[in-house]
Protein 1
Amino acid sequence: MRQRRYHLFSALLTGLLLAFCWPANGDLTPLVFMAWVPLLLAEERFATVSRDERPRHFMPYVFLAVAVWNALTTWWLFCVSEPMDAKLFAVIGPNIGNDLLMCLPWLVMRWSRWFLTGRWARVVLVVAWIAFERFHMHWDLSWPWLTLGNVFASHTDWVQWYEYTGHLGGTLWVWVVNLSVFRVLASVRIDLAPPGRAGIVAACSILLPFAASEWRYATFQEKGEPAEVVVVQPDIDPYDQKFAEDPLVQLDRMLDQAAGAVTDTTELVVMPETSLQEQPRLSDGSGGLVFHGLWENDLGHSLSVQHIRAFLAEHPGVSLVSGMSSAYLFPEGAELPATARILDGTGRGFDAYNAALLVRADGSVESYRKSKLVPGVELLPFEEYLGPISALALDLGGTTGSLGIQEEREVLAADERVAFAPVICYESIYGDHVAAHVRNGARFLAIMTNDAWWDDTPAYRQHLAYGALRAVETRRSIARSANTGISCFIDQRGDVHDATEWWVPDVRKGVVLLRDDLTFYAAQGDLVGKCAQWCTALILLGLLAGLARRLLTRR
């Protein structure tokens, strides 16, 4: 009897527990502390029984567990309003890819069983998993939506110590507790005795970090100079309205919304991602090319900027930041990046950007280009090496194919006081990315996003919750402007305030606190992930050395 049913049940149970504990997908967060235990028990049984009593391979059960988790948690990827082939690509691609990648730490753990006891092999699993999660934030197919530390996004009071560890510290906590619970159940099953010391360790592994966080949450005092900010929620349908209607009409409507909330003490207005859609065009002039639209070469002549300047002239002292779709024309003979396209009739290259535009109270302008792009929509993977493959891009309106980026984590400053990180959509799920903005002088975070692509699903609620973790990690206030919701303010403890409803036009006015000091995480970066990657590299070298020694011994 190969116990296939036991292994199948264990894999399914792990996948279900991980799915139901996820924010906005069940919100049964405590389940995460035992979610991996069924699969760990199955792996221990697989490793300790004879070959005749177990399935031939264990990894298919790991794949099943993470496939159930991915499918039940990110099923909303299918809800993009596109033809069926695009829907299938949107959901199957990220899910299958993520399933395979999540198997890798378990595969390293299984290899380590050749040389290590079960206890140390499970330590290898934890280290390799954290290393995988960090790696998954720093390559072209980055999709860290299901980073385990994100599971606490709806309960920021549980993880106030993210200001030291970042959200990968939450991943470590999840694994430590799961291993502790596994030891309790394994000892009871094998020894038929009360859990004893193992039970105490398991209880402490849950209660001590939780108690420390609750104490920090209760005693934490926000700091910083107050600044009044207005966030706009225009509620523009990205499929039927956004790219069909005159972009200047949309802009004027948003400015009218903001005007109803701006006061004499307002310092900044925040509008959502890609709110400015004025198409870049070129014409010939006596002095050369004339730029029209949102060319970053000459933003001052854009009609969008002129409309914003007229609005600011009516509201002295106010600055405005907005998401925009922009372009930049490279000089003749310039070395072009892999993302550049050739402009017909000129032979010159240009890049397209998902960007943010700041128009200050004095009329001056500054832009920031989104740095963390959505794979398959804004970023075609490995284009630098594989060449242009834009036919594979998922078209969600606007510019398709790989967009340009900027490497530096820029801070936009409305004036000497109001300096902020322009965080565009997908960037808000990257803790170390946002921390880099803060290291560079950001005093608060302005999140600009459009979450309407996936309809009324857990997607936009999860995205909002992940943003709250950035507030804890950096102890920065957040002003969040979302096209169709949820727009809100998030304080330095991660609590959401004055949230809008989903898919209604709205505007909110609130106060953010401008802060200069750095948390340990913001100052030092993602030490948990970096240490795990170095340790994993050493583990892999050790496994290779052990394998080589074994092969040489056989000879």
Note: The radius of gyration is 25 Å.
Protein 2
Amino acid sequence: MQPNNNQKKIKHSINEDQFQRMFDGMNIGATLCELITDEQGSPKDYRFIKINPAFEKQSGVSVSSSIGKTVKEVFPDIEQSWIDKLGYVVINNEPIEFINYNHNTDKSYNVNAFSFSDGKFAMLFEDITQRKKAEKKLIKSEQQYKQLFNSMTEMIVVIELIYNKYNQPIDWYIRQINKPFAIFLGKPQEELLNKKITSIINTIEDSWLKSFAKVEKTGESITFENYGAEFDKTYQVGAWKMTKNTVGVSFTDITDIKQAEKVSIESHRLSAIGEMASSIAHDFNNSLQLMMGNLEIIKLQKNLSVTVREHINNIGALIKDVASRTKSIQNFGDKNNYNTEFESLDLNQVTAESIKQSRPLWKDEMEKIGLKININTDYGEIPNIFFNKGALSSIIYNLIKNSVEAMPEGGEIAIKTGIKTEGIFLTCMDNGIGMNQQTKLKIFQPFYTTKGYKTGRGLGMSGVYSVIKEAGGSVKVKSTSVGKGTTIEVVLPANQLEKIKIIEEAASIKNSLRVLYVEDEAIIALSSKKIIEALGHKCDIELSGEKALISLDKKKYDVIITDIGMPGMNGWQLAAAVKNKFGDAIKIIIASGWNINEKELKRHKIKYCLAKPYTKEEIKKVFSKM
């Protein structure tokens, strides 16, 4: 006899005993509960009917103390929202799944609730506390990573390379980008994510694409330096593989460093040239001294016509002009011994001379290319200033040069002098390209230039600033406007020592001096002897330091004038020996074609110096100071 269908159902159904064993053996917490409603049928509580051991372990409540009790009895501070949620399951016969944190157990659960029968419902509790903690830790880690990613000063981007059908890299997507890089590109981070780089910038360096593709394919990290034409910058680039098709890339702007390196190399090259130039300039000065000495001797003749004297004076002026240019060569070659000797100067006259000397820059060179620059002057009535003439000429030259370079199509330069409360001013105004705010703030910084390395090294205006500040003056951009031009104002202190200087120069020498002139070139020594004697003094000569010391033992002298560069005992050694033996009884004057500044004189405890080529008046001037 075959079993009927009802018998089959009974055979395959789960009896209460089997259900209890399954219920108790589950690894997740499970409860069977009965909903309790109020008179209006709204959920107000529920009662525990069954609780398995897993729930007991999860919740910390015992089965024996919970069965038959309501949830409010077991958990007095249970929230009504929790009861309402489970009431919804029973009333609507709809299962729900949600995540719940229980502050009583300090655990998080994934809860599944479903209607069972006759106002009953079951709940399954999966303890996901560790998972939630791991998620929080991951979120915190991601937040820290994001903070670190955005706080890096380097520009960093994660890219996904795009290849063409020939497997050649042609573009990339920006998958992640840090804040400094977004700021550099001028867009918010969120606008850059998942965009092609070619939609943001116009050009991609082909060498970069190939390098990044190599990193992605080989997995080998690389570092290289490269120039980016889009922003006219040089970068140090680092790249490393992250996942398939994605590469992490860092960009560090090293433009200023590379420019400084170029300037340093150029500086060393110029220093070597300068040393050679300084040595040649010394020889020039000796030759000029021979010319000047002989010229001064000719001038001693009494029966010279007015015309001859005029020509002699013109030759003397030419020699002094050549000497001034030679001094510039020495200053170029020896910055440590830059001539800091100040004198009373007419700013208007020096400005006129500087305009004339810079004529090739603003007139000749411009006319060669069919352009024209005019320089207009407005000289005010001003007192003399106390300044180094070479430095002042250089300041004015650099102001003119700066204006010329700001007028690539030609234009007008207006130079004005006058007096104001702060001192004597000079303004240089042009109608050139002008400056933006960034350039205005940086114009006096060393190595800053907007002209490119070949045109300017960024040292001219910083040198102007340095020299003027050291002299107690000031320089500033008085006004500027892009496309309209710039006005730079220099203010220098008026000459407060003019009266003292005039008195010093007018002082006469009461007595005739006994002078020993020491020089290894006899022709220079002889011409200098004649000039000194023409001033009413007695003069002997020696051709070496050793012989000079012998003469000093035999004869009494008031003054010794010595060259520096001599074979055997040089001028500094002779001066030291004289000071050691005679103290200040004999005055020492250094006469040299080298560029000697006050610091060098003080180091050797020397007060007086004659720079070759010197005139009779300059010798007289030095003697008057003794």
Note: Residues 243 and 414 are 64 Å apart (CA to CA).
Protein 3
Amino acid sequence: MSFVGINNFRSNASSDNLNRNFENSLNNFQCLFADENTRVYSNSSSCSTYSIYFNNNILVFSDSNLLNKNQFQKAFNLLNISDAELIHYLYSNNKIQKIKDLIGKFTFVIFDNVKNQAYAYSDQIGQKELYFCYQNGSFIFSSDINLIQKSGIINNELNEDRLLEYIIFSMQLEEETFFKKIKKLKRGIRLTIIDEELSINPYFNLEKPDELILKNDYEYAEAFKEIFTKVVNDNIDTNQPTSIALSGGLDSSSIISVAAQNKQNEIIASTFKFIGLSNEDVKKTDESNYQEEVYKKYPNLKKNIVQINNQNPIKYLDDNLQNYEEPIVAVNMYLIDSILESLQSKNTKVHLEGFDGDSVISHGYERLYGLGKNLKIFKLLKEAKALKEKSGKNFTYASTLKEYVLKPFLRSSNLTSHQNKLLQEKLKRVRKGIVQDGWIENKLNKMSSLSISEQSDTKNFHLTTLQHPIWEDAICSMNKAGKLRSIDIRSPFFDIRLIHFCLSLPDSQKLKNGTNRYILRNSMQNIVPRKILQRLSKTDISPLAEKTVANIKTQTLRKQIFNNSSILDKYLDKRYFDEIFLNLSSRKGDNVNWLTIYHILALSKWVKKNHF
């Protein structure tokens, strides 16, 4: 399921030749649209998320799954139209600003042949991928980087700034890709080409809404349940079975329990089971007792239990290196792909993940800092004590006052000491002198629309967390895995409606009487099994991944990562990596080092594949 298109703002012999060469490079692709300026191709003529509409010399191509299209159709008296037709209507009637009100996953490209202008939009979360290149009056856009590379309009050059960004942050902070002149349309961005000048600006920034004020816990719970149920049901495929991940945790159990209440929905409960682990690791990873609670409550669920035996993250790296245009950063992608492979054999087209509901709902720990900042000491001590007791941890008045009252007052307006310590550790990965003055500050500013001092303010903790680019990276990684299996992966917790609602909640609905994620637990009473609602811990699914990385011999890691003919030799600090290689093999040092090694190993394999 891939698409690619080209628009020539200058019609001449050179552009005609480019069009012919471009079309010849696309094997097994069908032309969806062609005129003298624009051509659009896809390798899936039946892809349900693609639509295209041309009228009055205005072309719209859409890759989207809009969840509130019916509302727009009713508001503007439009009947049975495609997503592309809706965008065409909004653009043609000077209502394009309404795009910010669309809900769902989308990218749109608009070509106005009358004005010789082009526009492109990405959704507010960045759940769809749109890559582009603009060179000599030719605009190429695609769901895949390699399809742009096939155009021949640019050379296959490494973007070393993006390489450095990956080494230090292990994520994409800007629109730059690993390839020069190929960019990605990031979340909430509008691209415009007017008078042959390309510009990129946000049309949407995630902001903190006004606080929602209701009478009591019951009203808050009912309001949350209403919107959460709406979001889950909107993401269910009513025409065929829908798979939903079931880990046994609160997030996935909430999604699948809400979906299973509608008996008309045919729901597949997809989970995995590790085979061959030690007894100690089985205890860490086994969620079957919680999953059984869900099965008992909802016997209409169809079980899909995938055994994880020979799969591991390194094997997935090697097996899929040719399928990814950029390094495979998500270490647990092998688990998701194992489920997707099983669903592909069943011809299932939609899979829901309970991805990071923790961050969207929030554990509410910022409430403790707020109480401390406002010197509400009695409430602070009461809440902190209840939290510690429910977590099975020791509580002391002194440590509570130090953490939530004293430390916040001592913090500077710059990065907190904790953030600064993490950053300094990451900078050790690269040789001295590589990072130029101002580079780090520029990258950090890309993480949020808030200033560094505003990010440090605990009242903005929830908003800052959700503005972090890691979520967009993770969602796009899952989308890529799903696309390779022809399965649409959806993440209900990252529905913009739910995000806005959770940001509007008072802190007391996030943490109350020592119960974190209070509103989710309270609203899911009698829906999610009680045993799951009461659990406060999370299962660790990383032992297999960690052991796989840790068992790679130090000599092998050195050989694979450090190579005099590789560009990485210019950037990586060998002494630092030698130290963490040794620490990993002897199980010493910071336990996140294995993940750092995985990320750099994934990068080195990608660099070798591309001969950089």
Note: The mean pLDDT is 89.
